[in-house]
Design a protein that fits this description.
Structural class of chain A: mainly beta
Shape of chain A: globular
Order of helices and strands of chain B: EEEEEEEEEEE
Number of strands of chain A: 11
Number of strands of chain B: 11
Largest sheet of chain B: 7 strands, mixed
Radius of gyration of chain B: 14 Å
Number of helices of chain A: 0
Oligomer: heterodimer
Strand content of chain A: over 45%
Distance between the termini of chain B: 33 Å
Chain lengths: ~110, ~120
């Protein structure tokens, strides 16, 4: 069973508008969550993270919200820019003996149209 | 220069051949990982190593083996390649010691492997 789920394979947004990417998880032992961004022909790069003791973390145009009761997090990009077009992976960490390992979702491909 | 490098970047091989993918890092991190990415399946962990003497299986280790030759080097081998091992392979590193970004992993550029 997937422990980290990104149920939207793709998302299309107009430049300047808000992009909202969603992620759900099933394991209540996860205590740290990360978002990675991946361009074609490149490796994933870290974007933003949040600890389970927080419900919001902001970095410039990017904000991650965590709702622990719903086991849900979301990434908000405001305003969206064409250069934000990429695949975004949600990842979670903090499980028992494999602490430090990341469990990734399947990714959401974001397209920002000019 | 890139902190995490992978060689080769692209490789085409035939079923049954042995192939090795190599990863080197200059970040001084203790932990290294191998993932594969398939369309629609995200990143799945193959093997990971927390230090030179430590090797652990990940989610999908069957058909793969690894070697941690040094702190900076972690190689992935396919002893007898098969077509369903065609995928993008990524190496990553991390360091939990003194990191403000708990569990952040740094990825290499990837190796595109095609098994015919």
């Amino acid at each position: 069973d997937q422990q980290v789920k990104q149920n939207s394979p793709s998302l299309s947004v107009q430049e300047g508008r808000i992009s909202i990417l969603n992620c759900d998880y099933t394991n209540s032992m996860f205590d740290y969550f990360l978002w990675y961004k991946k361009y074609p022909a490149e490796g994933p790069t870290f974007l933003i993270s949040i600890s389970s003791i927080k419900d919001k973390n902001e970095d410039g145009r990017f904000t991650v919200f965590l709702n622990k009761s719903a086991k849900h997090l979301s990434l908000h990009i405001v305003p969206s820019q064409p250069g934000d077009s990429a695949v975004y992976f949600c990842a979670a960490s903090g499980v028992g003996g494999s602490q430090g390992n990341l469990i990734f979702g399947k990714g959401t491909k974001l397209s920002v149209k000019p | 220069d890139a902190d995490v490098t992978q060689t080769p970047r692209n490789r085409i091989t035939k079923t049954g051949k042995r192939i090795m993918l190599e990863c080197s890092q200059t970040k001084g991190h203790d932990r290294m990982y191998w993932y594969r990415q398939d369309p629609g399946l995200g990143l799945r962990l193959i093997y990971y190593s927390f230090d030179v003497k430590d090797i652990n299986k990940g989610e999908i280790s069957d058909g793969y083996s690894v070697s941690r030759q040094a702190q900076a080097k972690f190689s992935l081998s396919l002893e007898s390649a098969i077509p369903n091992q065609t995928a993008l392979y990524f190496c990553a590193t991390s360091d939990l010691k003194g990191s403000g970004r708990y569990n952040e992993q740094f990825f290499g550029p990837g190796t595109r492997l095609t098994v015919l």
